[in-house]
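Forum > Structural Biology > Help requests

Title: Can anyone predict the 3D structure of Glutathione S-transferase?

Hi all, first post here. I have the sequence for Glutathione S-transferase but no way to get a structure on my laptop. I'd be grateful if someone could post the structure tokens.
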Amino acid sequence: MTQTLPVLYSFRRCPYAIRARLALAHAGLACELREINLRNKPQALLDASPKGTVPVLVLEDGRVIEQSLDVMLHALRANDPDGWLAPTSGSLPDMLALIERNDGFFKHALDRCKYPERYTAEEVNHAQADALTWLAELDDQLEATGYLFGQNPSLADMALRPFVRQYARIDESQWNEQPWPHLQAWLQRWIDSALFAEVMETYPGWVPGTRGPVFAAGGVGSD
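Reply #1:
Sure, ran it for you. Structure tokens for Glutathione S-transferase below:
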């Protein structure tokens, strides 16, 4: 049967996959969602993208988008109803620079905070200090308007929130005790939103040879 929708290979809890689903849902771009087991990756995923990580979006014409930020940009350039790519303060290059820092500096620290058993005590201590510094900087950036770039949610907010959420879930009591009221409120607004509920819906694991469920058939507003 001819493929009629793009195919998104995803994993529910992966922050990279979450950010991709956020943009697809917000843009209202329908796709076939294939929820995969990262410990038993289907051959179809590896054929599309030998790197074997999610998300991977296979378009109707066979083109493959392998990076989560590229999936976001693809979706929002097709339909950006709330102007995530055009913040009221700053620019797209400014947002991309912050996202790059998140995906490098903060993600490096986050992994060591989340899986301390995999690293030396010195590495973990250094990572914890780096994470606290980064999150305090975000809290400062959010103080004026509640969002990272102006008055409304933007690409940067949606690209960073899944990673901040992952950090907050390591030790929720410790997270709640931190002096970051703007950051905590920013994260909670998103968690309480209809958009978050849609992108975090649970789907059964994809069975090769079958069609996955349709995801993001209609746009959902920002928080």
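The radius of gyration is 18 Å. Residues 152 and 206 are 36 Å apart (CA to CA).
Shout if anything looks off.
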